[in-house]
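Notebook p. 47: complex prediction with adenosine-5'-diphosphate.
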Amino acid sequence: MSSRKSPVVVMKFGGTSVGDVTRVKHVADIVMAHRRERPDVAVVVVLSAMAGETNKLVALAKSCVDEPSGREMDVLLASGEQVTVALLAMRLSALGFPAKSLLGAQAKISTSGQHTNAMIEEVETDSIEAVLAEGGVPVIAGFQGVTEGGDITTLGRGGSDITAVAVAAALRAEACLIYTDVRGVYSADPRICRGARLLDRVAHEEMLEMASLGAKVLHTRSVFFAMRYGVPLAVLSTFGGSFVPGVNGTWIVNEDELMEKPVVTGVTHRLDEARLMIQSMPSDISTMARLFSLLGERDILVDMISQETVSPGLVNVSLTVADDQSSVALDIARSSVPELGAGGVSVERNIAKVSVVGLGMRRHTDVAGRTFRALEKHGIDLQMVNTSEIKISVLVARKHCEAAVRALNDEFAPEVSECFDALA
Ligand code: ADP
Ligand code: ASP
Ligand code: MG
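Predicted complex, structure tokens below:
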């Protein structure tokens, strides 16, 4: 942890924000404006790779070998961020604001050894502090770290958000500002839902659920870090024209800072799950337990589960898994059909999971009823349902995903804005 007394702000810019050199220059202007407006506040920058670059690197590896090793994959993936940090640091320095790029290892971001999905364990701030002490702007490569043994790691897709919040926590920053290509967190993905509303404030618990249920504007683990270490976290636009942080953006706050809690704050969607169906399986609990043990032993994470009786003593079991685990899950289920005494197995990939999330659900009844009626009105059938205290998820045909998001946003979002009016 840092012993520095002067305040610092961490500014993170995502892939679209640094998508080409013109945009890197624009980011330099934003950093410069912040330094000019608030000369007493130091700035630390965290960057992503240029939009599309990490995808290109993944494709490059796959065109080279079928199953790249995690270690070499990380060496490759980390190169995207190396480009942007160098460009921004040289631009800032040329503008008269001395800056120094730091790769994950140079910024001493220590992680676990789980390649391509490593966890940040510690950020030693001395090299970042050294740049600050010279009056410079540290420009840190997001998404990457280093193991105890010196191997490069990456944090999982979208992981620059995690770097930013972890660095902000370690520096005890006054705020972590996530600059992106939309104005903040909306009640639904504004790219597929025109009626989505920009949210002023979202509670950590809601944002955690929204992120893990598909709102990729913030990485789930970045929200977790912000909540755990009390880092003030905001999402705002790189392209909004305003350089004043907090204006037109969304703050992620503690639940007790929200006076009113809308029933549903956000509607999210995910397209990366698959549904596995095991037909005509004996309905006793030990067969069910065996099926899930077999999947668990191979590290298959099961999300939704449902069963329906097809005839006395026999059920069809449906479960959802991440798409990238679905082939392995299918193999496991297929090879255990004789042992389980099931009739057969199939997989369905043309599905989408649409969820409504809101703290207000704890106190309101009929949220499920409203959700189902709104979908029914648009002729959208439900394949599965899953609930927790603050969310309801439904599985729908993929072709209905966008219509479902819009229907649910129309149903619940008007109440969100009423809450904010009430707060104003
Ligand atoms: P960056 O490259 O800046 O990290 P991302 O693409 O990871 O940006 O995240 C921003 C995108 O998240 C937006 O362009 C938007 O399409 C998507 N998104 C999904 N759900 C939401 C939401 N509820 N609010 C805002 N953006 C959302
Ligand atoms: N460049 C990485 C990715 O595309 C990390 C990030 O953008 O946050 O996933
Ligand atoms: Mg992102």
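Notes: Confidence is low (pLDDT under 50) at residues 418-424. The radius of gyration is 23 Å.
Next step: compare against the earlier run before touching the bench.
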